[in-house]
Write a structure and sequence with these properties.
Layout lengths: L4 H18 L6 H15 L2 H7 L1 E4 L5 H4 L6 H7 L5 E3 L6 H14 L7 E4 L12 H6 L3 H17 L4 E2 L23 H16 L11 E5 L18 H8 L1 H8 L4 E4 L3 E2 L2 E2 L4 H11 L5 E3 L7 H5 L4 H11 L4 E2 L3 H11 L5 H17 L12 H6 L4 H14 L1 E5 L12 E4 L25 H9 L5 E4 L8 H7 L16 H13 L3 E7 L18 H12 L4 E6 L7 H6 L2 E4 L7 H9 L66 E3 L3 E2 L3 E2 L5 E9 L5 E11 L10 E10 L4 E8 L6 E2 L5 E2 L3 E8 L5 E8 L1
Parallel strand pairs: 1-2, 1-10, 2-3, 3-4, 5-6, 6-9, 12-13, 12-14, 14-15, 15-16, 19-27
Antiparallel strand pairs: 7-8, 11-16, 17-20, 18-20, 20-23, 21-22, 21-26, 24-25, 26-27
Bound molecules: beta-D-glucopyranose (BGC).
The site of beta-D-glucopyranose (BGC) has 6 residues, from loops.
């Protein structure tokens, strides 16, 4: 038989690719892996297999971690092969990780390397904006780069696994963890999920690629009443069409692990939900990585009320969760469960195999110290290049809500009164989940403004108020003194603080008020029922406005706040979230016009808490409110507020103004094999060059089920010089019109569609076509 040269070449190429990807010699990388793991598992005792399923947090009181005691509890467990991996901020040291890995490699019977993970959520030591801010940049390349940099820094410090991306769709800003999400939209959320997975994992071939973890599967962002850890309940249609897409996108992008959520889904906690973990995740989506429970997620199911310690352990394993984070219930119960016939050896084997596969793919069997390069830790973390990237994306994550009379940008020569409890603080710039960062490193806003103007006398500072008048409330969220805003050391009375601020305000040309939430007011276990700027700061803001000087509100927040009053009275509002390590310089860049703001919201800002949930991709109902009306009897609405959010999804101003032409379609009908091109011309009519996020929305006008009034289907971030115009085109394909129908089939249906293009989800130009 003759073999074609091209075939030989293809074989060599594939072999090369395989070796490269998995760092291993051989023809078929998957087969190599299967053989290797099968051989290893043959030698493993049942205890050692169960040990692989055990993920422990590095505790402050364990001698191995503190370096104080030999033969600590943890040390003994590792030697016995009872630990599969470890995580936690106490592992922030290559030396420590190497030492623990050495224990597994030198003193455990089978020398199976451990996984080392951490909540690297929006950067490692170089911190990027909180995810809700990152999303507002609408810049997928920059978001991917942020994950890439996080992976470089984390892996340089010994880690091979990050508990990110968090891809929970969230429409309830009371929930503190909205700060960690990409917002309310499934399409944008999916694009961001993919970018993050790419950034973290690459193809695992390099020692700076780390394993991503999609979380929290599933529906964690739909906690009732926005109360953290609360129950969720929704139709499968809503799950598939609105909440599942980002998880699925991250699975499709190849994410190697998934974290189960704390909440129940359809009456069964996600952690023990076989429909979710096996039917949807593995069978329907083809996920082939491993699933880890969330922190003590297994033992919490006793509180959920679905069984005792044995029952919940068995149900978790049987549902398809492979690794037990912290509760150690697998370790405690699975052997007995096996002996009593409650689980099979196959169940344990499958879970063990998936964890070993992850270790293999990461290259840990080849080199357990692949991530323990002390030299890298010295040279690849918190570098100038990483700062520059963080500063750039931070400045593009800020959202300009209002800028009347061109209050912004500010002149560098003016006299500025910088006021507010967040104006002269470092740690709070970083936002929630910045556990690997050095809290003393970020510049304060005061320092950054002074650096930017090059003259410290132009900028005078006064704190003006505490975060809130309620010190008991404040103590709840300032859980660690590193985030303190100095209440303890403050000698002045509230009135004295206010008077000092008013005094410097009266001598200034403009007041910059740095107000809002502190970092710990959002994030895990930080739900709020009142979304106003806290009381003391509102009082301060009102007093500052009474001076008659122009006021720029620089708003720090981890969630949408209710800003109805502020929007009416404050001339300029710049929402800066928590921008990470470079927050302060990035704010200076935007305030002084070195960067023209281009961030757009990925979550709606409600007018009041009663409107929640308010989101752009809602259903029309049979009684929609007539356009332009605030209230009509017997129409869906409220007596006391209209249905629109204060700032809609996709919204954000610029120092320049963009104008949109009408939408042009190149055809009025689309076939199943065809496509339609929609175009608009966008013109920069203002005086500044600027970036604009052009957004494409589609509405299915005639569905077999009710469909949202609009859904984001595409976007392009473009740059236009002052006076310049560009035509922006989107190809619309039948694939983009698909949704899950009543039988959960993913299809598109013939009928009429509305195409909407604009600079936010409210102000759009419309055209229509039919799908045949
Ligand atoms: C959070 C997870 C996190 C885990 C480990 C849990 O409380 O819900 O998001 O990854 O802790 O720190």
């Amino acid at each position: 038989m003759k073999i074609k040269p091209t075939l030989i070449f293809a074989c060599i190429f594939i072999t090369f690719l395989g070796c490269n990807t998995l760092n291993i010699k051989g023809n078929d990388p998957n087969k190599e892996m299967d053989n290797f793991i099968a051989k290893l598992m043959k030698e493993m005792t049942i205890e050692e297999k169960i040990g692989q399923l055990n993920l422990l947090v590095a505790n402050a009181d364990d001698g191995l971690i503190t370096g104080e005691a030999q033969n600590s509890n943890l040390e003994l467990k590792i030697k016995k092969g009872e630990v599969g991996g470890m995580f936690g901020s106490r592992l922030k040291s290559v030396k420590k990780i190497r030492q623990i890995q050495q224990l597994a490699m030198e003193e455990s019977r089978l020398k199976i390397p451990l996984l080392f993970g951490l909540d690297v959520i929006h950067g490692y030591e170089t911190v990027f904006p909180i995810p809700l801010g990152l999303a507002a940049s609408w810049d997928m390349q920059a978001i991917e780069k942020s994950a890439r940099i996080a992976a470089i820094e984390a892996s340089a410090n010994g880690l091979c696994w990050v508990f990110s991306p968090m891809v929970d769709i969230c429409r309830d800003p009371r929930w503190g963890r909205i700060a960690e999400s990409a917002g309310e939209d499934p399409y944008l959320g999916s694009e961001i999920a993919k970018a993050m997975v790419r950034g973290y994992q690459g193809d695992f071939s390099r020692s700076d690629n780390v394993l991503a973890c999609i979380k929290h599967f599933a529906l964690y962002g739909a906690a009732e009443a926005g109360r953290d850890y609360n129950t969720t309940d929704m139709s499968r249609l809503r799950m598939y069409n609105e909440y599942f897409p980002p998880y699925k996108a991250a699975v499709d992008a190849g994410a190697g692990s998934v974290m189960a959520s704390f909440n129940d889904v359809d009456g069964i906690p996600a952690t023990a939900n076989p429909w979710l973990m096996t039917e949807v995740l593995r069978k329907q989506w083809g996920f082939n990585g491993f699933v880890v429970s969330d922190y003590t997620g297994i033992d919490e199911m006793i509180q959920h009320g679905i069984g005792d310690s044995m029952e919940v352990s068995v149900r978790t394993l049987k549902a398809g969760v492979d690794m037990d984070m912290v509760s150690e219930y697998f370790l405690k119960n699975l052997k007995t469960a096996l002996n009593e016939g409650k689980v099979s050896e196959r169940d344990i084997d499958s879970a063990c195999r998936r964890i070993l596969e992850a270790k293999y793919k990461l290259g840990l069997f080849q080199n357990p110290y692949k991530y323990c390069d002390a030299e890298r830790a010295k040279t690849e973390v918190y570098t100038d290049e990483h700062h520059a990237a963080a500063r750039k994306i931070a400045s593009e994550s800020f959202v300009l809500f209002k800028n009347s009379k061109n209050t912004l940008p500010l002149k560098k020569s003016g006299n500025i009164a910088l006021v507010g409890p967040l104006a002269n603080n470092r740690a709070n710039m970083l936002g929630t989940w910045s556990i690997a960062a050095d809290f003393d490193k970020p510049a304060t806003l005061l320092e950054a403004l002074r650096t930017a103007v090059g003259n410290s006398t132009n900028i005078r500072y006064a704190k003006g108020s505490h975060l809130t008048t309620d010190s008991v409330l404040e103590a709840r969220f300032v859980r660690d003194k590193r985030w303190s805003l100095g209440r303890e050391s403050e000698k002045r009375s509230d009135t004295e603080m206010l008077n000092e601020a008013l005094h410097i305000a009266s001598q200034s040309d403009v007041i910059v008020a740095a107000l809002g939430e502190s970092a710990e007011m959002s994030g895990e276990s930080s739900s709020r029922s009142d979304l106003n700027i806290p009381d003391a700061q509102q009082t301060l803001l009102k007093e500052l406005l009474k001076t008659g000087k122009p006021v720029v509100l620089v708003l720090f927040t981890g969630r949408p706040l209710t800003l109805t009053w502020e929007n009416e009275h404050v001339p300029a509002i710049l929402n800066v979230w928590f921008g990470g390590s470079e927050t302060a310089s990035a704010i200076a860049d935007v305030l002084f016009g070195d960067v023209n703001p281009s961030g757009k919201l990925t979550v709606s800002f409600p007018k009041n808490v009663g409107q929640i949930p308010v989101y752009y991709n809602h259903k029309n109902t049979g009684r929609p409110m007539p356009k332009g009306q605030n209230f009509t009897k017997f129409r869906t609405g409220y007596l006391d507020v209209d249905n629109e959010p204060l700032y809609p999804f996709g919204f954000g101003l610029s120092y320049t103004q963009f104008e949109y032409s009408d939408v042009k379609l190149n055809a009025s009908e689309m076939t199943r094999q065809g496509k339609i091109t929609a175009s608009v011309t966008v013109s920069n009519r203002g005086k500044y060059d600027g970036k604009e996020v052009v957004q494409l929305y589609i509405r299915d006008m005639e569905g077999s089920i009710t469909r949202p009034v609009k859904e984001l289907k595409g976007f392009q971030k473009i740059f236009l010089q002052a006076g310049e115009s560009k035509t922006v085109s989107f190809d619309i394909t039948p694939e983009m019109l698909k949704f899950y129908n009543y039988d959960l089939e993913y299809i598109c249906e013939a009928g009429e569609f509305s195409v909407m293009i604009g600079g936010n989800s409210r102000d759009v130009k419309t055209a229509r076509f039919r799908l045949k």
